[in-house]
Amino acid sequence: MRFAIAIGKSIPRFARTSCKSIRSLHDFAEFSPIGLGTLTKVVCTLGPSTDSKETVSELVSNGMNVARLNFSHAGDDYTYPKKLLDLVREAPGRHHYLKDGSMNKGMPENLRAVLVDTKGPEIRTQPLQGNADTVDIATGAIVEITTEEVSGDKAPDDADGPHRIQVDYGSISASVSVGSKILLDDGLIELEVTNVDPKGIVTTIANNGGPIKKNKGVNLPNSSIDLPALTEKDKRDLQWACKVGADFVAASFIRNASNVRSVHAYLDRCIADLKASDSEGIYMRPLIISKIENKEGVDNFKEILAESDGIMVARGDLGVEIPYRKVFAAQKLMVSACNEAGKPVIVATQMLDSMQRNPRPTRAEVTDVGTACLDGTDAVMLSGETAAGKYPMESINAMTSVVAEADEIWNSLHREDRYELLATGNNLDEELDAIAYSAVRSANKMRCKAIVLITMSGKTARAVAKYRPAVPVLAFCTDLQVARRLQLHRSVLPLLLQSNLDPSSKTTKMAILRAEAVRTARELGLVQDGDRIVTVDRSTGRDHDMFEFSHNIKLSTIRDI
Q1: 187 vs 35: CA distance, rounded Å
Q2: Percent composition of the chain: helix, strand, coil (DSSP 3-state, to 5)
Q3: Sign of torsion, CA 297 300 301 303?
Q4: Catalytic residues
Q5: Which residues pair with 537 in a beta bridge?
Q6: How confident is the model at residue 26 (pLDDT cuts 50, 70, 90)?
Q7: CB distance 256 to 303 below 8 Å
Q8: Distances 97 to 100, 101, 138, 433, 524 between C-alpha atoms, Å
Q9: Global pTM value
Q10: Residue 48, preceding bond cis, omega within 30 degrees?
Q11: Whether the predicted pLDDT of 23 surpasses 60
C-alpha cells in the first residue's frame, strides 16, 4: 500500500526532534516572548467568541498573525465574514504607531493576514427518516446508505433498525466494496459494507452504535472519491475572497495536484474578472494553502506541495481517513518536506481543544504544540478555542507561551545540520538562495539581533525564511498585500517601507532605502544602538554598471547619528 510505504520509512534527520544540546531545563526556565512576538506564527479562527472590536484587537495584541474565517457552516450572506475581515484590518497593531508621520498615505493599522477556509467537497448525511432530529443506531444494526430521499419514511421503532440514511454523494456505490468502512460523524459510528447494489444502495452493519444527526460528515477511508475540487459554494466563497482582498485561501480536501491547479485556475479567472470590471482596483490572487485531510492527499503529497503556496496539516479529518496511529508520522514528514521546499506549513486541529471549556490546557496539548514547533512548523492554529470557546484570550496566551518556549529551544538545536539539509531542496533562484543561506548563517553565527531586508515581491523574505533563522527577519515591503502574505513564514515580521522611492528604479540609491528601513526598525523598538544586524537587499544596475542587478549582504552595528 502506497501510504504505508510513504510513512512507514524512517523519519528524515531534519524531521527528528532532538534536545541533546539542552544541558538543563533551567536554561529556558526564564524565557519569555520578546517584544517582536513569537517566531513560529499563530493562526486564530474568528467566530462568536471573538467577533467584536475589542476581542479582535486583543487577539492582535496577544500574537495573532493570521485570522482564519471558516466557511464550512457559512451561507451565501457575506455580511458576517466581511465584518470579521474589517475588524482584523482595523485593529491597531505595530503600524498604528507609524501612521501619523508616514510617507505612505495608505499606511494600515496592522499587517495581520486573513485566511478564507473553504468548506470543500465533502460528503454529509441528509434529513433523516421521519425528519427526526436524531436517530440512535445500535451496534449490529443494519444500516442502508442511499442517495434517495428518506425523510418521508417512517423512523425505526428502536435503535436496532433497520435504518436508512441518505447521503449527498451520488457515486457512493462505486466508491466502496464489501468490507469497506463508512464512518459517520468524525468516526463516532463505524459501518462495514456487507452488500453493494448496482442501483446505488449500500448495505452495512454497524460495528459500533451511537446517535446520528443530519448534516454530519461521512468519511470513506481507503476509498477513491469522485468529487470535484470545488463545489458551487466554494466558487462563490472564492469570488468573495478575491473581491475583498483575502491573503490566503485554504482549499479543503485536496487529493492531488490537479485539484490545486483547478483552484489556481479559478482564482485567476476571478482576479481577471475583477480587473476587467474595476480597472482602478488593485487585485492579487490569494495564495493557496492546500489542506491535507485524507489518504489520497497523503499519498500524493509531493505533487500537491509542488503546486501549492503552502500546506495545512488538517488532523481532524486526516485522523479519520487514515489510521490515527499514523497521523503523527504523516505530520512530521509533511512538515519536513515543506521546510525543504521553503513553503509555509500550518499544523491544525485540536491543538488546545480542551480550552474551549477550561481555562488551562492539558499537558498533552502543551506537548503537542511544542512538538509541532520543534518539528519545524511555520504556524500553529487555534480553531474552536478562539471561535466559539469560553476562553479565547486564555487560549492564545497559552499558545504563544508554549510557542515562545519551543522557539528558544529550536533556535539552539542542530543548526549546522539544518543548513545543509535545507540547502538540498529545490532552488528556483540559485543566486538568491545562496544569499539567503549566507545571510542566515552569518546572523546566527554573529549573534545578530535581526535580519533587515527590503523586498518588493516577498521573494527575498521567503528565501531567507527557508533557512529557519534564529533571529527575527524584518521584511520591509513596498506593497501591503505582499507584506501580509509573509505572515505565515516563521521568523518573518513584515513591515511597510517608509519611503516613496521605487527600489526597482535605476535612480534609487539602495543605501537610502536601507537606512530608512533601519531607522523605522529603531523607532519601533525592534533594534537599538549597539545591536548587530544583517541587511539583505537588491540593487538595480545603472547604465555604466556591468550587471543588471546585484544582491547585497551587509553586517553592521547600529549607532546613533
Answers
A1: 43
A2: 40, 20, 40
A3: negative
A4: 68, 124, 291, 349
A5: 552
A6: very low
A7: yes
A8: 7, 9, 61, 34, 8
A9: 0.89
A10: no
A11: no
